[in-house]
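Hi, here's the filled form for the chain we discussed.

Project: internal
Contact: R.S.
Residues: 229
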Amino acid sequence: ENIRYRMETVLKNVIEGDRHLLKYQTHEEYLDSLVQPIDLFYLRSTTVARQIAELGYRSTGETLNKEQFLFRHYNVKETFFPSRKPHRLASANQKPFEPLLQDLATRERANRVGLLATIIFLRNFTKKGVELSGYIDFAQRLKREDWVPIFEEKRRIKPKLTDLGYYNWKTGESACNSSDTYKAILDPKYGLLFQCRNDRKVVCVDPRVPSPGSNTTRTTIKSDTYEQV
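And the returned structure, exactly as it came back:
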């Protein structure tokens, strides 16, 4: 619980640090705030001045490109001024016996509102005995499917071809995808890595590496339902 609290606190601080982005409606407005009068005097071009600012020459801290700005602007806006109704928790009023589901229930709200990001790795067998394994973006799955039957233990979690990582041990079919939360990276040394789009931290999922990365923890869960979690 202490680890989860620290992780949630770190992400809260990241979003709080981005609160100043609410002053800008567009990425262009954000770049204009970094442009100096002398830039316009010599360059005579707002477009070029913005390009100089985006390269980081007009800021002592991090300068956001358009993709980063839009993503973080959306997150901070939804945190402080949510446009949607409160999230309905699929795990509400549920008391699952399965250890994995118990752990995911404690993480659900934080993943739904963007305060926590969770990658689920599991190996699972189908009814026909085919082994499937995969890396699952918990937050994205919560958005795209109904988890009530899962928390009611009427349906199991299954890796899909659309997940961060997927492998069918019988057919050899595999997939690697980026998601709403993570960008997939193929590294020649560490293999599959995932970069969080929120804080830009890289997560190493290789279990042989002692630390999965900065601001990241790895939790192993014992389960009778899944081959490995």
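Let me know if anything looks off before we file it.
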